[in-house]
Design goal:
Distance between the termini: 32 Å
CATH architecture: Alpha-Beta Barrel
CATH superfamily: Aldolase class I
Number of helices: 12
Order of helices and strands: HEHEHHEHHEHEEHEHEHEHH
Structural class: alpha/beta
Shape: globular
Length: 269
């Protein structure tokens, strides 16, 4: 489903010859109010799209940093309902920054697929990325999303063949999320040349924006990747700032926002 906020964001940045800076935060890490405060400040600090992690007790695709953030979030009382409430409160003062929810299928299934999609739409969610649900087993989800205004964002990786990519693209919208590593989040990134090659190959078969994430842990790396991507996702490096500030939460906001500004400047230098 075409979503206006996501499409408008990439169209605007394309005209400006810029890459989108996508920042990831876990909902409720370290608590609801801090999450909301960070989300509200990020667009003014240079973030183009917000990606919010839906806490889950068994985040198998995520590295240790994000796994620990999920544990902290669940301990603070975060849930799928609380995540939707977080988006709803964010939308009270921001109706233009795209919001993508990223996570696992089980909590959505427990809430009820149609119920979740309806609540997500009302809250102001723009896209959904389910890391443990490949296209072959997500027909029901795709059908429901097609009835809504939410984009279905899919994952691809360095090992994705062209035929497989074509299959993934059939049920993708918003943007394609390219996993720049062959492993879990926060791992070592593949060579920039491999990313460039994947970008060039993808552009031959689709106009969908090409976004790179997983393993981007320095502003220098983000700047290099931005040359060959329509968007760059930074997650673990931001989460680390939250983790460092757990003992003194008053430092978290400034530390995270300062790092966000550093990445924003690097991505569009």
């Amino acid at each position: 489903m075409n979503n206006r906020r996501i499409n408008n964001c990439f169209s605007k940045l394309k005209k400006e010859k810029k890459s989108a800076f996508i920042a990831f935060l876990t909902s409720g890490d370290p608590d609801f109010s801090t999450s909301l405060k960070l989300l509200e400040a990020m667009p003014n600090a240079g973030v183009d799209i917000l990606e919010i992690g839906m806490p889950f007790s068994d985040p198998m695709a995520d590295g240790p940093v994000i796994q620990r953030s999920y544990i902290r979030a669940l301990k603070s009382g975060s849930s799928l309902i609380k995540t939707l409430d977080l988006v709803k409160k964010f939308r009270l003062n921001n109706n233009f920054t795209p919001v993508v929810l990223m996570g696992y299928y089980n909590p959505i299934l427990q809430m009820g697929l149609r119920n979740f999609i309806n609540k997500a739409r009302i809250a102001g969610v723009d896209g959904l990325l389910i890391v443990d649900l490949p296209p072959e087993v997500s027909k029901e989800l795709s059908l429901e999303l097609n009835k809504s205004t939410l984009d279905m964002i899919r994952l691809a990786s360095p090992t994705t063949t062209t035929d497989r990519m074509r299959s993934i693209l059939k049920s993708s919208s918003g943007f394609l999320y390219y996993v720049s590593i062959t492993g879990i989040t926060g791992s070592k990134i593949n060579k920039i040349l491999d990313i460039k090659k994947s970008y060039m190959n993808l552009k031959k078969i689709t106009n969908l924006p090409f976004v790179v994430g997983f393993g981007i842990n320095s502003s220098k790396k983000a700047r290099e990747i931005a040359k060959y991507a329509d968007g760059v996702v930074v997650g673990s490096d931001l989460i680390k700032q939250i983790e460092k500030g757990i003992e003194n939460k008053s430092n978290i906001f400034n530390n995270v926002i300062d790092l966000v500004k550093k990445y924003s400047k690097a991505i569009n230098k």
